[in-house]
Amino acid sequence: MMHSDDQHTDSPAMALPKEVGAETTKHSGGTLLTHLLRVEALLASWGARPVLRTAALCHAFYGTDGLPLVLLELSERDRLAEAIGREAEELVYFYASCDRKASYPTLAAQDGAAVTFRDRFTGAEFTPSPQQRRDFAELTVANELDLAKVNESFRERNGAALLGLFTRWAPSPVGAGPPRGDRGPRLTASAQAASMAVSASLAAPSSSSSSGMPP
User: Fold this and answer.
1) What's the confidence (pLDDT) of residue 184?
2) 185-206 residues labelled b (16+ CB within 10 A) or e (exposed)
């Protein structure tokens, strides 16, 4: 069940998005604020950890590689950290900083293969921790699934690419036992079920982007 605006009214993580204009910024399916709420609600339905759900409420603040809109400048990171906590703010930054073309191909690498994440703000390249990869994967899947659900043209353009991305990022099948070592982002089992169910609608013939990467 989607969380309503009322459930977050007293939360600093809810107050700041309204303060910086998310409530009046148009976005697929309504406003940017309603998108943020839907993404958080989807993560909640998967049993995502609380800090990731908090980050989801502000995940578009610094813009993304697919969304140039910026609600807060990077010079204001402390302001966001004060509202939602440092760990959640670092997740927001990590999500926003992803150079998707450079980073997506290796984020699902398995069995010790090299993983390279490129920060589009600084140009720095590094190997993210398994937890960072899991958080990034779950937030990305929730974000893209919400867009696909409310925006038919987005789904038609990017369905095939999204389906491929979700498949690479999915965890081991339920009952397969714990993964050996660091084998890809590893969404939770509930996230796997949700992504695969919604991805059934993404598998229809579409004209996905030539890069194979969703926007």
Assistant:
1) 57
2) bbbbbebbebbeebbeebeeeb
